[in-house]
Design goal:
The chain is of the alpha/beta class. The protein is built from eleven helices and seven strands. The chain starts with a helix and ends in a 25-residue tail after the last strand.
């Protein structure tokens, strides 16, 4: 079962601190309710109660699928940049399958990686005190054999693989989620052009997970945050910002992934353009004080 695997993985990986700091500091009654959800709850309920592996992927994939369904779309794509050994990518495939079953929206998974580990750091902005050349190599053949049919793995420098991929994205299967785990500032700069396509190649709001913003040495002048600031400055109608009020919307509020969840706002998307963003009915607020 999905939830039992989550517990086994946490214990196997020695993530006791995460369990005690994030989960067991939450209200007791919520943890008690979680047991019932784990046994009898639907997949969306398990996501709401953080009972799946990689909540940072589960939540945005479900959000994207539900958003697509509201727009009448039947298919989306979810992307991971920085695949390394592929544990995250394979988990993303499993979460996509569960989400697809729950929402009826088909989900394609695409992973991007150089396949050779990390390149040399450019300067202090790449946080060389945390990352270095050769980190996180990939066993490409072993990973390729494990990939399900829904998944593609694009190997090479993202400055070369992104343009071809964007050219293949149609409005009937837009990009719905982007996970960025490329560590360096310089690599993130080369990754964010994934958001430079035509407006209808994306959902109006695309969750963006920034994995490497949590180290003590991170700040707005280095790493992924600097790359995002530069992207925002260069794109008047594409903005990446922290996911609005996400912590207040979550049942469990101490999880660190919440602080790493951002959203790319596609302000030129047809659904956010006055000429095409028309509702069927006019909004009206009841006033119970009127006689």
């Amino acid at each position: 079962m999905l939830q039992s695997y989550a517990l086994r993985r946490a214990l196997k990986d020695g993530k006791y601190r995460k369990i005690f700091v994030e989960r067991l500091t939450e209200p007791l009654h919520l943890n008690v309710i979680s047991a019932g959800v784990a046994l009898f709850g639907s997949y969306p309920a398990k996501v709401a109660f953080d009972l799946v592996v990689r909540q940072q992927y589960a939540y945005p994939i479900l959000f994207a699928a539900e958003s697509a369904r509201k727009l009448g779309l039947k298919r989306i794509a979810v992307l991971e940049f920085g695949v390394a050994t592929g544990a995250g990518l394979l988990n993303m495939c499993e979460l996509a399958a569960h989400t697809e079953a729950a929402t009826g929206v088909a989900i394609d998974v695409v992973g991007f990686d150089t396949g050779t580990g990390m390149p040399p750091a450019v300067d202090h902005r790449d946080l060389p005190e945390y990352f270095q050349e050769g980190d996180y190599p990939m066993d490409f053949e072993a990973l390729r054999r494990s990939l399900p049919a829904r998944c593609r793995l694009l190997i090479g420098d993202v400055s070369e693989t992104i343009p071809g991929y964007i050219a293949s994205v149609g409005p009937d299967a837009p990009i719905g989620f982007v996970a960025v785990d490329v560590d360096y500032y310089s690599s993130t700069v080369r990754t964010l052009p994934i958001l430079d396509g035509a407006p209808d190649q994306y959902l109006p709001i695309v969750p963006v997970y920034l994995d490497d913003v949590a180290m003590d040495g991170c700040n707005p002048w280095n790493g992924e945050l600097l790359a995002v600031a530069e992207f925002n400055a260069a794109h008047p109608l594409r903005k990446i910002a922290p996911f609005n009020l996400l912590r207040s919307k979550r049942i469990f509020k101490n999880a660190q992934w919440i602080d790493r969840m951002f959203a790319a706002h596609i302000h030129d998307h047809p659904a956010r353009t006055p000429a095409t963003a028309k509702r069927a009915q006019q909004a009206y607020i009841q006033n119970e004080y009127l006689r």
